[in-house]
Amino acid sequence: MNTNSNTYTVIYSVILVVVVAVVLAFTAITLQPAQETNVKVETISKILSSVGLYDAESGMSNDEIIKTYSDNIKEAILVNAEGQVIGNMKTDAKNVELKGQSDLKLQTTYIKKASEGDAAAKAEIALPVYIFNVNGKTVPVVPCYGAGLWGPIWGYLAFEGDMNTIEGAVFDHKGETPGLGAEIATDWFRNNFTGKKIYNAEGEFTSVKVVKGGASEDDINGVDAISGGTITSQALEKAIKTWLEAYVPYFETLKVVEE
User: Fold this and answer.
1) What is the pLDDT of residue 217?
2) What Cα–Cα distance (Å) separates residue 26 from each residue in 32, 35, 38, 98, 210?
3) What does the alpha-carbon distance between residue 32 and residue 14 come to, in Å, rounded to a whole number?
4) Share of the chain above pLDDT 90, in %
5) How far apart are CA 30 and CA 184, in angstroms?
6) What are the φ and ψ backbone dihedral angles of 176, each rounded to 5 degrees?
7) Structural contact between residues 157 and 193, judged by C-beta atoms closer than 8 angstroms
8) pTM value?
């Protein structure tokens, strides 16, 4: 065949494209299990961080992180808009089931539509709850998800038995500004949530509030906003309130009445 002909050029190009496509497809399929495991481990590590069972500096392997989750979780459930348990997720190390970011994004849509009176959306609500046994104490963990300044933001909040006091929290983002909105992922910011309440002194649900300039020491619901990251702080506040309000019916079934 004449290597200088148009036919040769076309055939060569087609073969090259097919070969590259096959190689890319093979690579994607080969790496998919590892990618899925990494995504799962990333989610698990965030959940564990909220209950104090994981430290990013610990150097734990993926298998160790999954085992820690499986060994310490009592159950992982799904609850509907009325606070009723409607499903369970597997928690054994080989078959851990979680609700990832895509699931949280979808549930955020249902929650918002339901709050506007959409009965069909309300019926689709299935909110995840991860219930741990930490040093003999039952600690429920729930997620939150919303839109930040430049992309999605999300997190996990662990609660004490009164389902009012936050025991721990962890947050993350996809594209917030380093040194500003991205500070939501730092320890100093998330530690502000420990001990804060989601109900006010009168027992009314208020969620937690980020306070520009800093919350006063006696503010049971307030946490310090990020200096220079007001928009992200407010977006996180909104995301937390949207999700926690959806969990209130379930929280009411778990509350421990303090004498």
Assistant:
1) 84
2) 10, 14, 19, 27, 48
3) 27
4) 73
5) 35
6) -70, 160
7) yes
8) 0.84
